[in-house]
Amino acid sequence: MSAAHCAAKRLTHQAATVDVLKAISASPGDPQPVSDLIAAQAVALCGGPTVSLFEFDGDMIHCRAAIYQGWPPEVAAAYIASFPRPADQEPNLALAISIREARIVHIRDADTSRAISAAAVRAGLRSGIIVPVLQDGRAIGAMSLGRIETGGYSDPQVKLLQTFAERASLRGGKRVLNGSRRRRVPGRRRPSRCRPPPPRFSKA
Length: 204
Hints:
Blueprint: H1 3-26, H2 32-46, E1 50-56, E2 60-68, H3 73-81, E3 85-86, H4 94-101, E4 105-107, H5 118-122, E5 127-135, E6 138-147, H6 155-177
Antiparallel strand pairs: 1-2, 1-6, 2-3, 4-5, 5-6
Helix pairs in contact: 1-2, 1-6, 2-6
């Protein structure tokens, strides 16, 4: 890769980060536009058809934004409907590990990993990455990306995803401080804000 190409990539990533910061400033009371923008930027800049943003409230994992390009509609709908879910429901999967251990889980080949979800396998994903959204060293959420090729993500892409996770932490932390945990009623499952993918994302 040439120096010019690397420089152009850096500028593109910087511009994406600026766009996210602008979205945060423009929607101080509503985290959804920021979540949606981060998801769209991650797909566009990291070359994968799948991205999900999750929030962790200390007990349950909630899906806050998602793009599932190419997923069979029934698989995407079933996966979305499985949230919110307890963090320990599938403790050996990458999402739970990333949140529990507050670290990146990078699956470069689905055939050699047991941490990828059955839904991702049915959707044809061959690699993926989970980047935790951290606050005070603990995970308050995560960003999940998947690709149909093996190999995973490059170092610059991982760095960009970490930057997005930091921005999501600013927004996610504010949501928690505004009382999302206090409003949670024991035993009640708050609905997911993820939506099934539009028809254009479905397989032909």
